[in-house]
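Appendix B. Raw example, untouched.
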Amino acid sequence: MTRENLPTILKLGVDTGGTFTDFVLQHGDEIKTFKTLSTPDDPSKAIFQGLAHFFNELPENLEIVHGTTVATNSFLERKGAKTLLVTTAGFEDILRIGRQNRPNLYDLGVERPREIIPPENCAGVRERLRFDGSVQTPLAENTGRRLRRLCRELEIESVAVCLLHSYADPGHEKKIRTNLASLGLPITLSAELLPEFREYERLTTTLINAYLAPVISSYIKRLSNSLHHSLAIQQSNGAVLPAQAIEKRAVHTLLSGPAGGVQGAFQLAREIDIPQIITFDMGGTSTDVSLCDRQPSLTREYEIDGYPLRIQVLDIHTVGAGGGSIARVDRGGLLRVGPESAGADPGPVCYGKGNKITVTDADFFLGRLINEAFLGGRMRLDFKTVIAKMTKLGNKLKLSPQETALGIIRIVNSGMAKAVRAVSLERGYNPRDFSLMAYGGASGLHCCELAEELGVRQIIIPARAGILSAQGMVRSNPALDYSRALFLADNELHSTTIESAFVSMLEQGKKEIFKLCGSGAIQVKRFLDLRYQGQSFELTVPFDSDFRINFHKAHKKNFGYAMETSPLELISIRCTLRLKRHFTPLPRQTRQTTTRAKAWNERDIIFAQGKEKVEIFLRKNLAWGHELIGPALIIDDYTTILLTQGFKAGVDELGNLLLQNCSGGSNTEDMEWFNKSGH
């Protein structure tokens, strides 16, 4: 690429995963892709490998959008900063007391989540606010001196401040920040990060942000200083923000990579006019699923490693089922798969360094991965070692190697089906009403069998399925979320009262987003947290003239009943400001005059019913109008698709594969959907 041929802005999406790092470069209406093994010891190494693939010298007009797992890995491995938690005296044990929720009521062996910080890093200060923000006990005069001494003695690197009822008045928290300013430490105030009630959730969210802030800040500064280019980071809510804004919002990057995938899947579904999808992102380490019913599902009830986060994130359910998930025999002699993963290093056995059989090894053993075409032919796989390791594992189970490999596939598919049911059936949605959007490096090998188990009739495999998360990042808008506690009884719930409460929040939001991201058209969405008077939980509904009616409808949908005559109460108000950007449309293809695609090769593949010879197609040779009947194998540079018996596939004008399950019979709606591809 010469600079003369570059558009005004050149955008590069970078998704750092547990096994691979993916790249999507948008050059006008042209999209280029690349994938390389991740470098867990330093994620930036893989990023620079990708940059070197595209450029000899980085162009000045390059914008990079990055989805990172640094925050997630640092928290799960407890490699965050040495953090001091400051709270109201007498409330130092909130972190350990929690909510006393028991995931399994009769389990006497419940293990509490690993601690984030040791007890001695929790400091109580003498002060007390009432729920309305009035001062019951002023902040002690010696607070600053005592906290500064503690920070020095404990070699503290970051501070989290979460005082009782500070959402009503941030004054005491701000005084503590002023008192500690001379130390030069990053300080997270709950009154700024999450000005809402519910002490435990506010505390855990604030603490996790402070715990991760120095790690994220250090990583972003190293990357930015090396790049000398515009860098944006994918947030957990599906939006992006400039890197410098993320340094104080580290907690918002915990679902950075998966959020890019859901965003990319939703954008694509909207472009091809498919309103209801279940995203299925099977990568090397895990599988992420999310339900989009005409819009992405958002939640504020997310937990990470047992700790609640009250920020708004995409509702993504994750299970430890990826291509790198390790197969083993448990103490009872049963075959188990995951959640442990071989990751990028050492990786699956077939990659040449691993020594434990994984899902990828099982797919390779069964003939579903083609050695000479894996990763575009740039990576050779080791079949001889896989045979030896699979035989050894099978001997422990008293099974043949083929039975062992098929068992691994069946178990991992079952785990992923359970995840899909968790976001659909368990929430009142029938997966048969949704299309399965399958992307990620390993999803194409498992999507048909998964659809069979779930009764899903329609599958979409995007044109760039192996790197869709990176594509979603390139096409994401900047956005900021705001919230504020506001307690109003039913007789105070007037639109004019609520409108006035939003004014200062919206003014602050517009000022901040323009400062961070530049000018542009802003889309504003406002929401209310409502509940029936006396309830201990609330539902979030859009703020409009019908907010009461919408709340009753939402309550009935979620819980099966509504109490239209019962008084309501408002708990919080919240809003999202999104800066709308223009994106170049995805590239279109030329319609083929024939539906017959030419096979590249054929080979034997092992299925549950036995060995069968199937045709192999190169995806780069498939175009709009082509049709395939299963069984068949479709080879892409970064993913492989197994079209099983009973499925047929068509290619639409964007290059997406539209798969239809014909084994259970088809109806008119199914055929209309399939005909979207022009068949």
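End of appendix B.
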